[in-house]
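Office hours follow-up: a student asked to see two folded examples consecutively, so here they are.
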Amino acid sequence: MWPRLVANKILKKRLGSSNFVADYPTEPLFDFTSVAQSTLSSKSILQPPKDTKKYRVFVSTWNVGGIAPEDDLNLEDLLETSNTSCDIYVLGFQEIVPLQASNVLGSENRKICAKWNSLIREALNKKSRNQEHEMKNICPNKEGNNPSHCFKGPQEFQCIISKQMVGILISVWVRSDLRPFIRHPTVSCVGCGIMGCLGNKGSVSVRFLLHETSFCFVCSHLASGGREGDEKYRNSNVAEIFSRTSFPRGPLLDQPRKILGHEYVILLGDLNYRISLPEETTHLLVEQRDWDSLIENDQLRMELTNGKFLRGWNEEAIKFAPTYKYCPNSDVYYGCFYQGKRTEKKRAPAWCDRIIWYGKGLKQLQYTRSESKLSDHRPVKSIFTSEVRVSQELKNLQSLFISERFQNLKTQLEVSSKDDFFVKSTQACGHKSLV
């Protein structure tokens, strides 16, 4: 079976597709934009007036080191659900499975992907469930009394895209009232690992339109290595990802095919760029928390400033400690004293895990890290505001269709979004869109 699996991985079509996991069909039940455009075409050939709305986008990246999460792993600290509320959540993971031959060459472990999505769903919707419970206690649902009128809690979140390639996983979630305005969600996978094409390294890119603005998120795991010159392999991976990633043009042939053709692009992942200093110097500067001196020698920052492939991209100032490489279940870096003795491996600390972006209209509000000790990497997270174009006619339709009457109808039409139900149903039908 393995030769056939390997051949499929090497020869598989590289174009973007709809082969991904989602709570609901890839296109909304009601395409509001098509309705608005058909209405406008009968009224006028002039361009409709546009409004701009701002949405908050949460983005995180985490190399989990091939460690499967426990059932009780709490993602609330990473997602900051108790402190902030965003409209879109994009979570990128690397090494959700160990990068051994059986995982790279064989079929993908879908159970791990489903487990991460289940944990994300639980964390994002916990506040909604808690406040719904409070609402029922405060305002019981007596005859003729709808509790939703006396308390309006946060919206639940739904998965619009979840895609895995070997150890890389990207999962995108939106507020339920925004889902009908998400169009053309597609994915594109590029392997840059073994033989230059297998998925132990590479990227999983997703794109979609929110109202009339295009988003593209690129979750990457680039070439590793801390020796002098290894950054060239990472730069080469970036060039391959940009050139080989390709999305469908859409039914009207008006959608961008390449990553940089989208209005807002965010690149996240274990980019593996290191600090070009001797290991002893790096450790000393880390102990002194001299981030500025370290950043001056950071390979990615130099590529953003003077490089060939990422010049013009943006990254906010880094005010947190390097995210790699830690001893197991500790706050001690490799190369330091751990449990009374110096660790055997020599790995200089580095900001391997990064979030950078491209496009006017994006503004980064937060750039920090979380402190989970699950792996030898710390998660990195960021919050953006994005300006999204919305036509006035579409805005009016939105007000109509998010009414209570429409929500009741939509609920009756939609299928259950529970992870276990979705996985069992698709397996029973032989469905191939499970990551």
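And the second, which I mentioned at the end of office hours:
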Amino acid sequence: MKPEADNIDTAIEVPLLVGINGDNKFHQDSISGSTSFFKTCFNGLNALSGVGILSIPYALSSGGWLSLILFFLIAGCTFYTGLLIQRCMDMDPNIRSYPDIGHQAFGPKGRAFVSIAMNIELYLVATGFLILEGDNLHNLFPNVEFEFGGLVIGGRQSFIFVVGLIMLPTVWLDNMSILSYISASGVIASFILIGSILWAGAFDGIGFHEKGALLNSNGIPTAISLYAFCYCAHPVFPTLYTSMRNQKKFSKVLLVCFLVCTLSYASMAILGYLMFGSKVLSQITLNLPTNNLSSKVAIYTTLVNPLAKYALMVTPIVNALENRFLSNQNKGLSTLIRTILVLSTIVVAMAVPFFEYLMSLVGAFLSVTASVILPCLCFLKISGIYRRFGIESISLWGIVLVGIVVLVVGTYTALQEIFQRLVR
């Protein structure tokens, strides 16, 4: 029988470049991976610069110009909590995953809670990728339908199904170094997307004429939730950390990733809000006229982005399932587990049509929990500074308190919007 902690394991337990030992024990000499600093930066940028780059103009529209202050505060806070994750892992070489941090802090219940929160978050983010793909492809080709075994599937559902099958081979990869090349394409795609949006506004007749509102107080909860969703990659950070050849440079990886992504997000938010104002949709690409070259580049680039990010997001879930259900390495069963996981996200994506509300709910309930509250609580417990009265401990408790307020208000707002949409 395995220990209780191993039986409830629901997250990646080993670096992706290290073999899984049958006894599931940790060894100091097997912790370091072989991924270089730059490849880890690509993986980190790819994880952070997700579908939030499309929804952030909508977030700014929801909250108004002054909500940008909140955006930069969230960016700084989540960078700090990312460093807290590294500090927790540096304190104990046996910590090799996010759930390990929860176990070190609060025992088996902490492991279970962290595992559930992070895996649901990553699962819904991956599902959001498929919804995004379906929406944009349906916008480009509204009359396309596919037939599979006599069953005709049309509209966005057909595109979600096809794209999910295209993404499946990337999920079969289990090497972070190889995934870094896919990640590089995702990072490049993000910059191309921003450039094409800028071109559409400056040279294709859309212009930057919308003034926007200074503050929309009613939309602040939605704005904060979507801003938080932009920085929901914390469950992936331990995977990146353990895959690095030189883990002492991980703080520099985080700095590079957060600086680049924050500038990218802010640029996209400002450009989109100036272009479309309050009329900006949940995905800015849905506002673009499909007959312009720049618009087509933006939309097609949007389609490439999730292809490069999907595998990185579901990798911790895949390894969690394999650690739970596979006693030893079995390539056939591993492929089956990965395939079933992808198919399940396809089914959920087909059933959930509200992209902006799903992302808002994920940001408020799961991203705030996994990226803000849990890193602070775990570090307070593992480091022991919760026993001392100091600037850092006060700051951490303050972040936790604010995070709980955002979680409650943001989740309530998102659920209310989903309910109103359903009853229409």
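Two things to take away from it. The two ends are 52 Å apart (CA to CA). The chain has a mean pLDDT of 83.
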